[in-house]
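Troubleshooting: if your tokenizer reports a length mismatch, compare your output against this known-good record of 202 residues.
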Amino acid sequence: MIDFITRTIEQLGYVGVALLMFIETLIPPIPSELIMPLVGVAAARGEMSLAGATFAAILGATAGATMWYAAARAFGPDRLRRLAERHGRFFGLAAKVVDKPAAWFARYGGWTIFIARIVPGMRVHISIPAGLAGMPLGRFLAFTFAGFAVWYGLLGIVGYTLGLNVELIVKLIASAAPWLWASVALLIGWRLLAARRARVAF
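Known-good structure output:
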């Protein structure tokens, strides 16, 4: 999966970033928590602008989210629930998802859209109750864009920082490896000793 994401970014650039995020938001097979740090690493290498790549990611994800919003408004709760029961496995959509975020949305309104954009699972399907409730499109897009901007921006910065310091990180891991292995060995030895004492006591 990492190779696929990396090749898509290298070959298609900003379009590839937007496409990956569109797919992730429409049918979530690839988490943004994996895509955006790799985008940040590519930006650190000078392959693209971090700001431009983040903007492309936001546009792609917003397009995917808007399709769920439009589907909810077009189908309505009953038809959408039947669609989820029959074909939801192909879209990662369970019938309960149609109703599950509705309570949050009814209580907090547009801010639910903003918060859910950084929560795995809800990130995709929160568009459905927004569409079912007839939330104005402009308000939906504003909260969606803002939520994605915060989350993808943070993930991109993490990847960018890692990309700039990748050699340092490798050196730190290499220097810490003996201590990590020693800690693991001590932990295993302690667990074996504890298990042996427990059997003797029994």
